[in-house]
Design a protein that fits this description.
Blueprint (H helix, E strand, L loop, with lengths): L1 H17 L23 E6 L4 E4 L4 H6 L2 E7 L5 E7 L11 E6 L6 E5 L1 E5 L5 E6 L1 H4 L8 E6 L5 E5 L4 E5 L5 E5 L14 E5 L5 E5 L14 E2 L6 E7 L6 E7 L8 E2 L8 E2 L5 E3 L5 E8 L2 E8 L16 E8 L5 E8 L4
Antiparallel strand pairs: 1-2, 1-24, 3-4, 4-5, 5-6, 7-8, 8-9, 9-10, 11-12, 12-13, 13-14, 15-16, 16-17, 17-18, 19-21, 20-21, 21-22, 23-24
């Protein structure tokens, strides 16, 4: 009952924020970056080359209560964006982690559930989210867990727990990709395992097991290739080699189709597994790298030809994390934080 009361209070406060004075919403401003608060990360809508257009969330009050935003996911029709967020300000210590959903124009924001890394169902009516023990365990989970949330009714359904994390809905809606959880005998699986949850049968399928994987562990971001392609992207520290790598694999062909992606020839460091988003043409993947000591989007080719995609429009004084493409290939959404060269 107490938890329900706190949630209702939160929803009421959120509603008041959304109804705030129009004078607070300065959508015409292209940037919301504060050098005095380096922990802030605000999602921005940009041109395809990175030129900022505006902060994603239109309401400034809400944007500054939830001022650390990341892992955006865009609905298949391009109309809505889901992301996780929390507050860096002590006065808003109870703000997060939440999964927020808003229209592409930044309006109609809501916070349907606690958690991280939301991923839309193909029809945009549901999201799958990763929840930490302090929240999921109150509703029956054991450890980290994956939940499907209905955006209209707010009803939640747990599909996996005990270390399950990073759920990503397939484009056909038939399955959810994730890591970890438990096997058929109830034994906890390592984070190097990739699995599929079948929506129809409610059964699990192992895609990458601890024996065949080249990875010691997987970082928690994954992505499906666009259209009806059945490829996935993932990455992390390698098991039998130094360093890290990013990879793609066809889920129907298994490990025999696994391909480690070639890093940039200029030596740019890739934070493998930190973020993935396939270009709408399917020929490259946008990831987070380190360029001149700052986080910055880098394009990795998925073909034999090097990627020619560049992002010259991102401002020099911001770090850029968790970049994703809009489905039409005309815009990018990314988290901006203050950056100063040292």
């Amino acid at each position: 009952m107490k938890n329900r009361f706190l949630f209702l209070v939160f929803v009421s406060e959120l509603t008041l924020a959304l109804l705030g004075s129009p004078s607070l919403a300065r959508a015409e401003e292209a940037l919301d970056v504060d050098a005095a608060h380096p922990g802030r990360l605000i999602l921005h809508v940009c041109e395809i080359d990175g030129t900022p257009i505006r902060p994603l969330v239109a309401n400034e009050v809400l944007r500054h209560e939830f001022d650390r935003q990341g892992t955006p996911d865009v609905s298949s029709d391009g109309k809505r964006v889901a992301f996780d967020a929390w507050s860096t300000a002590p006065e808003f210590a109870d703000r997060g982690p939440r999964c927020l959903v808003c229209d592409f124009d930044g309006k109609n924001a809501s916070a349907p559930v606690d958690g991280y890394m939301p991923s839309f169902s193909p029809d945009g009516k549901k999201i799958v989210v990763s929840r930490t023990p302090p929240f999921g365990e109150k509703e029956g989970a054991k450890g980290q867990s994956l939940w499907i949330v209905d955006l209209e009714t707010k009803e939640k359904q747990m599909i996996a727990d005990r270390g399950a994390w990073g759920g990503r809905w397939s484009h056909d809606g038939a399955s959810i990709l994730f890591q970890g959880g438990v096997d058929e005998q109830g034994e906890k699986l390592p984070s190097s395992c990739l699995r599929l949850y079948d929506m129809a049968s409610k059964e699990f399928r192992m895609l990458l097991d601890p024996i065949e994987t080249p990875f010691r562990e997987l970082v928690h971001h994954f992505d499906w290739s666009p259209g009806d392609s059945r490829k996935i992207a993932f990455g992390g520290p390698l098991r039998n080699a130094p360093g890290t790598a990013s990879a793609i694999m066809n889920v129907d062909e298994g490990v025999s189709s696994l391909l480690l992606l070639t890093p940039p020839a200029d030596g740019t460091r890739i934070i493998d597994g930190f973020s993935f988003d396939w270009h709408p043409d399917g020929n490259s993947i946008m990831v987070t790298g380190i360029v001149n000591n700052r986080p910055f989007p880098v394009s990795l080719s998925t073909t034999e030809q090097p990627s020619e995609v560049k992002y010259p429009g991102f401002p020099a004084h911001v770090m850029v994390r968790d970049p994703v493409y809009m489905p039409d290939g005309k815009h990018v959404i990314a988290s901006f934080g203050s950056f100063s060269a040292r």
